[in-house]
Amino acid sequence: MAGIVSSAPVGVENLVYAILNEGETSTYGTPALVSPAINVKINPKSNSETLYADNRAVETVSNLGEVDVEIETQDLPLEVQAALLGHKLDTTTKVMSYEADDMAPYVAIGFKVKKGNGKYRYVWLLKGKFSEPEEEHSTQENKTKFQTPKLKGTFLTREDGKWKYTADEDSGFKEGASWFNKVYAPVVA
């Protein structure tokens, strides 16, 4: 097609989170950095049904279900774990307390994906909860092997039906400088 300029993704950066205000459907706290991003994996689940009539498929419908998200970062600071997983971090001693009834809040996550042409794709996932990460620690050997944390979450559609916003610089999007100031919301005229 003429006029479409596109390029393949080559990297992910600026992974942030914002807590969805309790009892609200689309207002969030101020975005904060998770940690330098290594990988973001988004796996939407959908259900499809096909209607058969006159001995053939005549109609099909797909519905979005939950969206599995996995983030891998350089580190997962205790402050971020407390915010994303609902734990208590003592501000004086800097010791985190893990309790069986800690509840992770709903959050949005945002990031940008660098493309091969130097332009960016901007993304916000709007409502999800993360679960306790697996931990594995290995001894240091004669060759350094980094041990980076992965956090898994389940994202859903908000009450307004929205679950994600995406914008591409190479399609004319020009507001990348302010994308991470707050969770994106379209301007209503």
From TrEMBL:
<dbReference type="InterPro" id="IPR006724">
    <property type="entry name" value="Phage_TTP"/>
</dbReference>
<dbReference type="Pfam" id="PF04630">
    <property type="entry name" value="Phage_TTP_1"/>
</dbReference>
<dbReference type="InterPro" id="IPR006490">
    <property type="entry name" value="Maj_tail_phi13"/>
</dbReference>
<protein>
    <submittedName>
        <fullName>Phage tail protein</fullName>
    </submittedName>
</protein>
